[in-house]
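User: Fold this, then the next.

Assistant: Folding the first:
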Amino acid sequence: MGARREPLSPELGAIIEQAYRLFACPPPPDLGVCQGCCMWPEIEADFLNHAPRDLTEAYVRDWYFAAVASKDGLIVHKPIACWIMPRVLEILAKGQEVASVGDEVVLQRLAAGDSDRWSADQNALLTRFKEAYLDLIPQRCDHVMLDDALCMFALAGFAAPAMTDQIMGWSDEVLTQVLHQDWIGSCIRPSIWRTAFWEANSDAAQHVWNWYLSDALLERMIKIALAEDLPDEICQKASEVERLLISQR
């Protein structure tokens, strides 16, 4: 997920600028990751000499390559999470790769969706980012998979039902194009794409899977396939998604 540079939309651009203001904080006491083994020594030594906005994408990727120095090995301490958050959001917003291991884990490391960790204004900003990012997926569906993005936000602590409700609010054409691209256009054989980063048996993973196989989504595809006021191409794609959903039941 994340393979090409995209210009920031006006909405995301405003969100990123606000993030730099709301998350402005002193440099952390340390990087929150293992030291002296995972990062390039030159990058590790120089990392905190820069303002977050000036961190290169290579620096951020190298930081994500390092193991987290915490008991759970997943979430860094708040000082580094707060300090680096705006830069991570900015790289994601531009469609660039943040972590070579997979961008599904980048917001989990910062606990971006943990409302107890952040102020009310910061939480509101992070929610706006999530919503704006999801709504950009239709424009990036040739290189950003919907399931990958849902997993990224769910692992970070954002509620899955709010995300699937947002997606069901997309127009018929947009929803059909995204599902068809992810499940049929990008696959050797039609299949419901699932990233390997989902936590097995988690409530979020189960919710998203249940939504894929829900009566509501199937009925939406049937309705689109039979619509007389939509382009034939959209109706055909909806019909193909419909057949796939039926085959998974």
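Now the next one, as you asked:
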Amino acid sequence: EAMSQPIQIGKLTIRNRVLSTAHAEVYATDGGMTTDRYVKYYEEKAKGGIGLAICGGSSSVAIDSPQGWWKSVNLATDRIIPHFQNLADAMHKHGAKIMIQITHMGRRSRWDGDHWPTLMSPSGIREPVHRATCKTIEPEEIWRVIGNYASAAARAKAGGLDGVELSA
């Protein structure tokens, strides 16, 4: 019975306690934009009665944290805003809320992305899976990445999403 009860998160009221956690949908474009299939995937969840969906597992906040093989969403550009508006409208018309998980992949990112970023991490220790080398993050880069998170959250809000989940 508790699952069907509304819940308040800050100022946001969610119609029930049924949610879909962030995961790799693999429906974004190569450039990280949502597609009709992406929107329909979440809209079906809303039609089914879900209260909240958190989309875009590990969606990128910065150009130096490029999209993964799972075709994550790119929040490093304003081009995502109208895509979010379509997604938010599809969810809201069925009474559901929508958020997105945002992250900077750090050393877990791809070194061979479109912009050939230098991977960075707090320690400078290489990534254990793909073994790419990385550098120790500098203090000014920490502030830049914090700003990237803020910009990504602002884009999500401008697109009508109900919130963000930070993965750091």
